[in-house]
Amino acid sequence: MADVTERGRSYRYVGPVELKAAVRPGGGGRRIGSAADFDGWIVEQSAAELAEPFTFVVGVDGVLRLAPRRSEHVACAGGDMVLSAGEISFMREADRWTVSEVSNQSTGYCPDVTSWAEVARALDAAELRRPSGFTHEVVFRRCPDCQERNIVREDDFVCVFCGSGLPAAWNVDPTP
Fold first, then answer.
1. Do 17 and 102 share a structural domain?
2. Is residue 14 located within the same domain as residue 67?
């Protein structure tokens, strides 16, 4: 179920059950609640890791969590609900780190593009320069007929699995 909290909508994991079942208790991405947290984390990353985007989630506590790119979002979140999820890249700009790219690309949580506000708040708390929105927005919808999750491309709101029309509003995880 997707709940709306005082922080915004929270998203439940909707991906393959075997991936959630593999999440280790106490696991999860590195919590980045401040500039000091980010500074400690970034120096641990290799040049090869920095060349690729990282997996991120914003927990329901509003805090950014980061993990290597090939990590599952549900593992980064420790199996919990999130306020957003996606991929993020960083680059060194003058004397500080900045976000070069950020998307809501997470087929496990399928967050709406409106989750950007939560990402922006989390990045601001970590004192990271950021773009004004997702640099790559992914529009997720669930087909009301076949129930498959879809990525909408080029504003074509048609299910790629059965050809039915997809709704204009986010509906990936309908309230039971």
1. yes
2. yes
Do β-strands 82-93 and 139-142 pair in parallel, antiparallel, or remain unpaired? unpaired
If DSSP states are collapsed to H, E and C, what string results for 54-115? EEEEEECCCCEEEECCCCCHHHHCCCCCEEEEEEEEEEEECCEEEEEEEECCCCCCCCCHHH
Q: What is the pLDDT along the chain (176 residues), one digit of tens a residue?
A: 455 545 679 999 999 999 999 998 777 899 999 999 999 999 999 999 999 999 999 999 999 999 998 899 999 999 999 999 999 999 998 888 999 999 999 999 999 999 999 999 999 999 999 999 999 999 999 999 999 999 999 999 999 999 999 999 999 997 65
Does residue 34 contact residue 26 with C-beta atoms inside 8 Å?
A: no
Domain that holds residue 157: 139-176
